[in-house]
Amino acid sequence: MEPTGDHDWIKGCTLPDHTELQERTLKTDQDIVIGERCRIDYGLLGNDVVVCEFSKINGNIVASGDARIDNWCEINGGTSSSRRTPTSAKGG
Fold this sequence. Notes:
By secondary structure, the protein is mainly beta. 0% of the residues lie in helices and 33% in strands. It is built from no helices and eleven strands. It has a five-stranded mixed sheet, with no helix packed on it. A hairpin with a 3-residue loop joins strand 1 and strand 2.
């Protein structure tokens, strides 16, 4: 892969302690950040999940917090986030 500039420091995969590799899912209770142009052949289950541009995820994305998927990503699975956004109060 050609160098892409300032983001070259992400050249490997780092998994936090106590991450579980289940049959088809990487599961952690921490945040997950997938760098740009990555291919992950597992689903992701974590607190906040961020998938950067041009990445491909072959599995489901489940976030107990926020899920952010940037432009030009390919997700071959479902996505869900359990964080609720507040609704505005009705005037009356």
